What we know:
By secondary structure, the chain is mostly beta strands. 0% of the residues lie in helices and 50% in strands. The protein contains no helices and eleven strands. The protein has strands spanning 4-7, 10-12, 18-24, 32-39, 46-51, 57-59, 67-72, 77-82, 91-99, 107-108, 112-116. Strands 2, 4, 5, 6, 9, 10 and 11 form a seven-stranded mixed beta sheet that branches. Strands 1-3-8-7 form a four-stranded antiparallel beta sheet, with no helix packed on it. β7 and β8 (77-82) form a beta hairpin. The protein starts with a strand and ends with a strand.
Amino acid sequence: QVQLVESGGGLVQPGGSLRLSCAASGRLSRLYVMGWYRQAPGKQRELVARIFSNDNADYADSVKGRFTISRDNAKNTVYLQMNSLKSEDTAVYYCNANGLLATMPDYWGQGTQVTVSS
């Protein structure tokens, strides 16, 4: 069983930066895509960014050029660097490990709150 633990959320002013971390308790195979999702009050959970085993990444249009996802395989950790934060980035951010095969379970972290406000 793999556990994902997020950290790094908090309160930041518009234009500021935060870095989220997601530490996996166990090693995940290369068949897992690591991603960050977010859910704002009253809205559906949405994909923010994801990174593949070959380090290719894709992003939601709303965060392109501002957010960067990266991974440190030696530490079993995925990061989300968030710059130029806006009030609309306020949400609970969740780490996800998505198995590429149907037989593979997905894993979710507990979420970390990011609030962008002056």
